[in-house]
Each structure stands twice: as structure tokens, then as C-alpha cells.
Write a sequence for this structure.
């Protein structure tokens, strides 16, 4: 199934937006004595999600499945980070 250029662009944006949460996960598990780097990376990722949604809204384009999946993933992982690190 071929994707349109808009769908490919949306996939690239959501792929880039998810990277800070991966970095936060690594920081939480490798830097055990301090959770600050992980929470900073997580906050950067939340800001990136908001910016991406704003970008799609300004251009009046559909954010696609990533527009729903990424915020849900961030909320789920944020809850898990909070439960395991507090």
C-alpha cells in the first residue's frame, strides 16, 4: 500500500516526536541516582507533541494515527515512569 507524501511526512514527524521518550526511558534506567535527566527529556517530548499538533492544526492537515497513538503512549509511559521512580 503506497502512502501519500502527506502521510509519509506525518509518519516522520511522529517518529521524531517519540525519540525524547526513548531517551527518557534510557536515562531513567541508566542514571539510577537521579531522575532529573529523565523528567527533563520527558518534558521535552511532551512539548514536541504539542508543537507537532500545533503544526498540523496550522496547516489544516490530519495528524493521522500518530496524532492519537503518540499522546497515549506518552501518558502511559509517563505514568509508568512516575510509578517506578517516585
Amino acid at each position: 500500500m503506497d502512502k501519500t507524501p502527506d502521510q509519509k511526512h506525518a509518519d516522520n514527524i511522529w517518529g521524531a516526536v517519540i525519540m525524547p521518550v526513548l531517551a527518557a526511558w534510557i536515562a531513567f534506567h541508566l542514571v539510577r541516582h537521579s531522575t532529573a535527566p529523565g523528567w527533563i527529556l520527558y518534558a521535552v517530548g511532551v512539548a514536541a507533541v504539542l508543537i507537532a499538533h500545533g503544526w498540523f492544526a496550522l496547516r489544516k492537515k490530519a495528524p493521522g494515527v500518530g496524532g492519537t497513538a503518540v499522546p497515549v503512549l506518552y501518558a502511559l509511559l509517563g505514568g509508568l515512569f512516575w510509578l517506578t521512580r517516585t
